[in-house]
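Example (one chain per record):
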Amino acid sequence: MGGETDYAEHLFSAYFHQDCLLDDPDWESVVLRFKESEPFDVVRTTQTELQILLARSDDADLEKFLFGPALLCFYDPRPEGLPLTAWLQEIVHLLAGGAPRSTDRLAISLARREAASIARRVLEDEFDPILATRQLGRLRRSVAVDNDDPDFTTFLVIDSETDALPVDSDRHQWSPEALSRLAIEVVDARSWALTQGRHAFESILRRFGAAG
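Predicted structure:
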């Protein structure tokens, strides 16, 4: 091996193959198997190469390195809430003897699966889009997105515009007369919410669907 990333390439190509998650339950176990299977000097050199790669690369560079024409790696951590830079940092952490830190990522992954499921049900006309925006709004912190994430901003706007309508579990607090009077408005609001939110629902399904 004479290249600057030969050992790192060996880690990704030999261990993160197409069936890696059939051999191991999660990506951390793949790294730990590499650490236990390979000689100490190979592990240490791989760690060093990854640190150098991180120092000179951003996520776009790492995407080319991992998933470019050579397709070194068949596992993509991003649907699980890990940007490529953070993922390589975690791999370095494990190779250096650190313990797995998967609890938070598991919670994020589960929340993203739930968000994708909600979006899918709306798009398949199986769930009220207004209720969906409220549920997705409550999931925003759990799915680990930026405060100004455009999809969740859309859900916040829809929720704000429809929060006075009786579409949630509080319907029992409304009188039959009020429910009857607002019935047409609720139907129109659902149609508006679906139209305004369709792109955001599709985006959530596209972004987080792989987590499920």
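Caption: The longest helix spans residues 176-208.
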